[in-house]
Design a protein that fits this description.
The complex is a heterodimer of chains A (about 400) and B (about 400).
Chain A: H1 24-31, H2 36-63, H3 67-70, H4 73-78, H5 86-107, H6 112-128, H7 131-178, H8 197-224, H9 228-243, H10 246-260, H11 268-293, H12 297-305, H13 310-340, H14 352-360, H15 369-400
Helix pairs in contact in A: 5-7, 6-7, 7-8, 8-9, 8-11, 8-14, 9-11, 10-11, 11-13, 12-13, 13-15, 14-15
Chain B: H1 23-55, H2 86-119, H3 124-138, H4 142-154, E1 164-166, E2 169-172, E3 175-178, E4 180-183, H5 187-215, H6 222-239, E5 245-248, E6 251-252, E7 257-258, E8 261-263, H7 265-291, H8 295-303, H9 308-338, H10 350-361, H11 364-393
Antiparallel strand pairs in B: 1-2, 2-3, 3-8, 4-5, 6-7
Helix pairs in contact in B: 2-3, 2-7, 2-10, 3-7, 4-7, 5-6, 7-9, 8-9, 9-11, 10-11
The chains are: A mainly alpha (about 400), B alpha+beta (about 400).
């Protein structure tokens, strides 16, 4: 084969495409030391990270007094919620585990590693807990496994049931936790001033989501409406609320609701909930509006051509598509809502942050701010991380259908 | 409405519909009903409020703002004593809010750009660290972060006597003390010189730009302009009979520092908390913006012979900016609104001061109206400004 007569190389001469195979050294070279300034950056940040990690780990293992957490776990979780009614909070957790297990089996079949980690969580926590909490956590774990097993066994038939389950779960939680009637009723009323800790934080979030969602959708529809007065009212409401900090809305709800509605005594927690709902609805409305604007005109025209009136067109054609398009953004908004509930401590509620303050005032545990607030941050972080991981899965799933 | 089809022939157009089936009537009626309901609710609310206020013996009005405040404010940009009026106390609060917001926005933008670029770095360690930082900030409420920084970091610093010293800067539980210039008599004159320096620099840059456009060859612009500015500033400093600023360094007095600039722990905690929290969000905005520029744009720029710096400067950045500006605006607004969390750590911002006034006078309705009005105006003003800027950098489409 001479150079002047090029010919196709024979099959044996064709090398396979190089596979990217790294040795440890090769990986280091490519990702950490590719150029001189990259190497410099790596060294500088590496040293900082190592020094920081070492001092943090040393502090956490030797100096930190974590007994402030272990001694107050109950306070952090449910605040002053009466001991006799604690089972209701656990019932909510068990139901949630059942629903998660069920849904995981139906929609999340491929996420096996996540399922195992999630399923093992209650059992791991049970080894750390004591007495009733340990038993309750074991029941929670079993409920999750049962839900998962049920859905593997009868998945498709259970799909509708689990959707209905999720829809009634949140009102059910509110009913279970608050109870009704006097001491003789099966679920005696627990006044809201006894709600506290993570329980209150989660309830504020749930109430915020459940009530601000329909309000937000209505506001979004109003803003898109062709009726100028309705549109103007919605625009004013949305822009005013989005222009002021949440804390002023909370303050207004605390101080001015009693003035607006004299004669009716609204307790502090409900006032805070009202503030959160009014605030969150304006932000949700803007997100939903984004979804509404993404619907092509043809959809409206087609709905009209089918003879649907405005309400039917919105409910049956436009909203389902618009909401589906913005589900990930809505989940993001709910995460923000969850984080924002921490502000109720400023109006004097004993949510997770309020309990943290109360715990720090205990004479045994003065000056342990770092431990307490790191624990609180960890709880918030775990919940937010789970929600955002869920939203990413959801996003991937929803966009896969396109 | 030229292409509206004719009505069906079997229906005479006149008696086509009863009026309550007419779309225009339905729309008008619906609006009137909504308006009546909203107005009715507002009327009931205002009535109730007036009645409750009357029972409490409060007459609405802003006259009380002229009364003496009678409380002290920890830090203030303007002269304030507890014999000043409530109105002046509010102004102190507003200025504190604006100070922390403006400083916060500037610093958060710088840090946010660094984080966003680090997130795109090819260096694995830098990339992961930026990711970790963003995730940490985004998954923890700002309030927790602020209270943590305040109570677990700044208040845990040693007392002033054992202050940690970083060169001339001292960290203690009294805050951060650093050298600062005290204005002397010539300072007002020097301000004019500073303005003149900016003017000269702009003049130089404009002249060089015209020269560049005339000659058609790249000329240095930024560097000469900067040099003009620096030279004017330095010459002005020495020409004046007395230096405009005397540098004072902090010294430890009995329990606190004297001299220099002392930033309180409340201010520092609020500023740092707001900056790192917002920087994480800005980092994501910047990353998304840069990634939104198609790769072909970079390749085309390189094919045209632009070097790496010019590609970034002339091709990537202007296009990324269009995607970045709107979400960046909302981050700026968030930072301003979030500065109201100052009340949780005792920094006297607008909201904290108004809370004190409510406690002292019971004037909740007026104070909430004032505070909401101020935040709303700041928000609207910022959006206007950013919308104007956004229009300037927007893609000009056919």
């Amino acid at each position: 084969m001479s150079a002047s007569t090029p010919s196709l190389p024979s099959r044996a001469e064709v090398l396979p495409p190089p596979t990217e195979r790294y040795t440890v050294l090769g990986w280091l070279r490519k990702n950490l030391f590719s150029t001189w300034y990259n190497a410099l950056l790596t060294v500088i940040f590496g040293v900082i990270v190592i020094l920081l990690l070492r001092s943090v780990v040393e502090w956490a293992l030797t100096q930190a007094r974590w007994e402030v957490i272990t001694a107050n776990v109950r306070l952090f979780m449910v605040g002053q919620y009466p001991t006799a009614a604690t089972w209701r909070a656990w019932a909510c957790v068990v139901l949630l585990a059942l629903l998660i297990g069920l849904s995981w089996g139906i929609w999340g079949r491929n996420q096996r590693a996540g399922a195992i980690a999630f399923g093992a969580l209650p059992f791991v926590l049970a080894t750390l807990a004591q007495d009733e909490a340990r038993i309750a956590l074991l029941i929670t774990g079993v409920a999750g496994v049962i839900g998962f097993a049920l859905s593997r066994w009868r998945g498709p038939q259970l799909q509708r049931i689990s959707i209905i389950g999720w829809v009634i779960y949140f009102p059910l939680v509110i009913l279970l936790i608050s109870g009704f009637g006097g001491a003789n009723s099966p679920l005696p009323l627990v006044p809201t001033n006894l709600w506290g800790g993570l329980l209150l934080t989660l309830l504020l979030t749930v109430v915020g989501i459940v009530f601000s969602f329909p309000l937000g959708v209505l506001l979004a529809l109003g803003r898109q409406s062709s009726l100028p007065i309705v549109r103007a009212l919605c625009v004013i409401y949305i822009e005013v609320i989005r222009g002021v900090p949440l804390i002023t809305v909370l303050f207004m709800a605390q101080l001015m609701l009693p003035l607006f509605l004299p004669g009716v005594t609204i307790d502090r927690v409900v006032r805070a909930m009202a503030g959160i709902v009014l605030f969150s609805a304006a932000y949700l409305a803007e997100n939903v509006r984004g979804g509404l604007q993404a619907i092509p005109r043809g959809q409206y025209e087609a709905a009209r051509a089918l003879g649907l009136n405005t309400w039917k067109m919105m409910l049956l054609i436009i909203l389902p598509q618009a909401l589906k398009a913005v589900i990930p953004i809505l989940v993001g908004q709910f995460i923000a809502l969850f984080k924002d509930t921490s502000l109720v401590v400023i109006v004097g509620l004993l949510d997770l942050m309020g309990i943290a303050k109360a715990v720090l005032a205990q004479p045994d545990f003065l000056g342990l701010q770092a431990e307490v607030y790191l624990f609180v941050a960890l709880i918030y972080g775990v919940f937010c991380y789970l929600m955002s991981a869920f939203s990413q899965r959801l996003e991937a799933r929803l966009s896969a259908g396109r | 409405m030229a292409n509206v089809p004719l009505p069906p022939p079997d229906l005479p157009p006149r008696m086509s519909r009863a009026f309550w089936r007419d779309d225009r009537f339905i729309q008008l009626a619906a609006q009137l009903i909504v308006l009546t309901i909203v107005a009715g609710l507002a009327f009931i609310v205002v009535q109730n409020m007036a009645a409750s206020l009357q029972r409490q013996g409060i007459v609405l009005g802003f006259g009380f703002l002229d009364n003496a405040a009678g409380f002290d404010i920890g830090e203030s940009l303007i002269r304030y004593t507890n014999t000043d009026t409530f109105a002046r106390a509010l102004l102190v609060g507003l200025l504190n809010t604006l100070l922390v917001s403006v400083l916060g926005i500037v610093l958060a933008t710088i840090l946010g750009i660094i984080v966003g670029i680090a997130r795109l770095s090819s260096n694995w360690l830098v990339n992961r660290l930026a990711w970790l930082f963003i995730e940490l900030m985004r998954n923890v409420p700002l309030l927790v972060l602020l209270i943590f920084i305040y109570t677990a970091v700044f208040l845990k610093l040693p007392r002033a006597r054992q202050a940690i010293s970083l060169g001339p800067i001292y960290l203690s539980n009294r805050g951060v003390a650093m050298p600062w210039g005290e204005p002397t008599e010539t300072w007002p004159v020097y301000l004019y010189i500073l303005v003149a320096a900016v003017g000269l620099a702009v003049l130089a840059a404009t002249g060089l730009r015209i020269w560049q456009e005339r000659s058609g060859r790249p000329k240095p612009i930024a560097l000469p302009a900067l040099l003009t500015f620096a030279a004017t500033v330095v010459i002005g400093w020495f020409v004046l009979p007395q230096p405009p600023l005397t540098i004072t360094t902090p010294e430890i007095a009995a329990f606190n520092f004297r001299g220099g600039l002392i930033l309180t722990p409340e201010f520092m905690a609020l500023l740092i908390g707001l900056v790192i929290y917002t920087a994480a969000f800005i980092g994501e905005v910047v990353r998304a913006g840069i990634q939104s520029v198609p790769k072909g744009q970079v390749e085309a720029a390189r094919a045209l012979g632009l070097n790496g710096r010019r590609t970034l400067q002339l091709v990537v950045f202007p296009q990324a900016l269009r995607v970045i500006i709107p979400p960046l605006t909302s981050q700026y607004l968030n930072l301003t609104k979030n500065s109201s969390l100052a009340v949780a750590i005792g920094y006297p911002d607008l909201f904290a001061v108004s809370g004190t006034i409510i406690n002292q006078t019971g004037r909740a309705v007026e104070m909430i109206a004032v505070v909401m009005g101020v935040y709303l105006s700041v928000s609207l003003f910022t959006s206007l400004l950013m919308n104007w800027y956004n229009r300037r950098v927007r893609l000009v489409e056919r």
